[in-house]
From TrEMBL:
It comes from Candidatus Filomicrobium marinum. This is Beta sliding clamp. Forms a ring-shaped head-to-tail homodimer around DNA. Pfam families: DNA_pol3_beta, DNA_pol3_beta_2, DNA_pol3_beta_3. Belongs to the beta sliding clamp family. InterPro entries: DNA_clamp_sf (IPR046938), DNA_polIII_beta (IPR001001), DNA_polIII_beta_C (IPR022635), DNA_polIII_beta_cen (IPR022637), DNA_polIII_beta_N (IPR022634). Residues 1-120 form the DNA polymerase III beta sliding clamp N-terminal domain. GO terms for molecular function: 3'-5' exonuclease activity; DNA binding; DNA-directed DNA polymerase activity. The gene is dnaN. GO terms for biological process: DNA strand elongation involved in DNA replication. The keyword Nucleotidyltransferase applies. It is found in: Cytoplasm.
C-alpha cells in the first residue's frame, strides 16, 4: 500500500471510527483499525465486535492494499500534525510496518494481519427507510437520558425503536425507561418502515450514533433486521448488534386517569427545583411538591444538610396535592421540553406523573413518585 491523503480528511475519518475502539482489550486485533486503499479512496473500519464503523475518504492511491494499525496511536499522531499537511502512508512489506510521513515527521507503526480483523456478519436487512438526520437526532436526544444503566435489566439498556399506531396515523416511536422515568417520542412513520420489527438499540450504539449525527445535516438511511441495525450517514456506516431481549409493555406504566393538571413555566420550575435540591442528600435527592390553588411550594428537608423551600405561581384547578419526586429526574425531563410551559398530569401521592411539553404533542414523559 502507498498513498497520499490530506491531514484533515484523514483526521475526520479516524475520528469517526476510533471512537468504537476500546483502549483496553484482551484481543489485540480489536485495538487496530483496518485500512483498505483502492482506486481514489481509502476506507477505515473499526469494531468492538458489537458495533462496526466504516468511513471512506478521498486519497491519491499509488499502490492499493489492506492492512491494520493501532487505531488510537494513528489517530493521536494525525491529530498532532500541522493543518493542511499532506500525509504519505506506505507499507514496508519486508518489516511489516506502516510508515507515515508528513513534512519532516516520520513514524513507523507495527501491523497485525488484515485477515485476522473480525467482520460483523450483517446478513440481510429487509427493512430499509430514510429519514432526516435532524429527526433521528431528536428521537435520540429526547429519550436517551432515560436509558437504564442497570446491567441485570439488560433489555432496558437501550432505546426501543418500533412502529406504533395513533389516532392520527402510524408513527415511528422511540421509548426508553429505567423503571423510574420513561421517555416516549413519536415521528410520522417514514416510507419503507412499515412492518419493521421492534428493536432495542444498545446504549453505546445510541451514543455513537448521536455523535455522528451532530456532524450531519442530510438524511440517514436506516436498515433493520431482527438482530442488526445499520445507519448510513454520508460517508459513514455504523452497524450494530441489537439487544436480544423483550422490551417491557411500557404502555402499562403510562397513566391514563391522571385528572389533576398543573401548568407551570418550565424555566421557573427548573430553576426552583435546581435551587432547593442543593440541600438534598446525594442519595435521596427528593424534592416535595405541594400544590394548592395557583401556588406550588417546592421543599427539601435533609436532616444532615438543612432545609429549603421556594414558592412559584402555577395554573392548577384541582384539589390540593402533596407529592415527592427525585430532583434529578425532574430536571432531566424539564430539560427536554422546548415550550415555555410544562404540563403535569397528576393523580395522587403514590401514582406516577405524566409530563408533556406545551408546544410539542409528540413527546411524553412519565416519572415515578418518591416517598418524602
Amino acid at each position: 500500500m502507498r498513498l497520499v491523503i490530506e491531514r484533515g480528511e484523514l483526521l475526520r475519518a479516524l475520528g469517526h471510527v476510533t471512537s468504537v475502539v476500546e483502549r483496553r482489550t484482551t484481543i489485540p486485533i480489536l485495538s487496530n483499525v483496518l485500512l483498505k486503499a483502492s482506486d481514489s479512496t481509502i476506507s477505515f473500519k473499526a469494531t468492538d465486535l458489537e458495533r462496526e464503523v466504516i468511513e471512506e475518504a478521498p486519497a491519491s492511491v499509488e499502490t492499493p492494499g489492506t492492512l491494520t494499525v493501532p487505531a488510537h496511536m494513528l489517530h493521536d499522531i494525525v491529530r498532532k500534525l500541522p493543518d493542511g499537511a499532506q500525509v504519505e502512508l506506505q507499507r514496508e512489506a519486508e518489516r511489516e510496518r506502516l510508515t507515515l510521513t508528513a513534512g519532516h515527521s516520520r513514524f513507523a507503526l507495527q501491523l497485525l494481519p488484515a485477515e485476522d480483523f473480525p467482520d460483523i456478519a450483517v446478513g440481510p436487512l429487509p427493512h430499509t427507510f430514510e429519514m432526516s438526520s435532524a429527526d433521528l437526532k431528536r428521537l435520540i436526544e429526547k429519550t436517551r437520558f432515560a436509558i437504564s444503566t442497570e446491567e441485570t435489566r439488560y433489555y432496558l439498556n437501550g432505546i426501543y425503536l418500533h412502529m406504533a399506531t395513533r389516532d392520527d396515523g402510524a408513527m415511528l416511536r422511540a421509548v426508553a425507561t429505567d423503571g423510574h422515568r420513561l421517555a416516549q417520542v413519536d415521528l410520522p412513520l417514514p416510507s419503507g418502515a412499515e412492518g419493521m420489527p421492534g428493536v432495542i438499540i444498545p446504549r453505546k450504539t445510541v451514543n455513537e450514533l448521536h455523535r455522528l449525527l451532530e456532524a450531519s445535516a442530510g438524511s440517514v438511511t436506516v436498515s433493520v433486521s431482527d438482530t442488526k441495525v445499520r445507519f448510513e450517514i454520508g460517508t459513514v456506516t455504523l452497524t450494530s448488534k441489537l439487544i436480544d431481549g423483550t422490551f417491557p409493555d411500557y404502555a402499562r406504566v403510562i397513566p391514563q386517569a391522571n385528572d389533576k393538571e398543573l401548568t407551570v413555566s418550565n424555566s421557573d420550575f427548573m430553576s426552583a427545583v435546581d435551587r432547593v435540591s442543593t440541600i438534598a442528600s446525594e442519595r435521596g435527592r427528593a424534592v416535595k411538591l405541594n400544590v394548592d390553588g395557583n401556588k406550588l411550594v417546592l421543599s427539601v428537608n435533609n436532616p444532615e444538610g438543612g432545609s429549603a423551600t421556594e414558592e412559584i405561581g402555577v395554573d392548577y384547578g384541582a384539589s390540593a396535592l402533596e407529592i415527592g419526586f427525585n430532583a434529578r429526574y425532574l430536571l432531566d425531563i424539564a430539560g427536554q421540553l422546548e415550550g415555555d410551559q410544562a404540563r403535569f398530569m397528576l393523580s395522587d401521592p403514590g401514582s406516577p406523573a405524566m409530563v408533556r411539553d406545551s408546544s410539542d404533542g409528540s413527546a411524553l414523559y412519565v416519572v415515578m413518585p418518591m416517598r418524602v
